[in-house]
Each structure stands twice: as C-alpha cells, then as structure tokens.
Design a protein that fits this description.
Layout lengths: L11 H82 L11
Length: 104
Amino acid sequence: MIMTTTPNGTSTRLNDVMKVCVKLHKDIGLLEGKLNARNQTVRELTSRVEKLQTDKDGKEKELYQQVKQLEEKMTTHNHTIQSLVFKIQRLKRKKITRIPRALS
C-alpha cells in the first residue's frame, strides 16, 4: 500500500480512518439517543399497563360487590315471592272466594 502525505505531514490513510471514526461516533450517538427514547417509551407504556391493571382490578372488585348486592336483592325478592305464593296457597285451601272489602 502506498501512503501519501498531505502538506501538513499526516497520511491520507490516517485522515480517512479518523473521518470514519468521527462518523461512527456520530452514528453511535444517534443510535444511543434513539435507544434512550425507545427505553423511555417502554417505561411509559409499562407504567400505563400497570395503571390499567390496577384500574381493572378495582373495577373487578366494584363489579363483584355489585353482583353480591344484586344476589342479596334477588334472595330477598325470592323470599318475598315464596311468602306470597304460600299465602295464596293457604287462601286457596281455606277456599276464600271473595276478598273482604277492608282488604280491597
């Protein structure tokens, strides 16, 4: 390989290597910036997912409580209906054919 020298005494080959190194350094800096931005995005998305999971857990608990309350209401209504059915059956057994005016 023939090495030529520039007027200031450095070889052109060394200059070329230095240019490549400077370019690589800039490229590495850009890639690090992109990587940092992506890492920040991942952290933000992870935080959002965790918040959504927490919100979901809270909603599930709330819905579970609502279901429990509805089940209790249904039980109460079922007892009321069952009680009314027994009263009707008892009235039928007594063969009451007309309703007294005080009840109507």
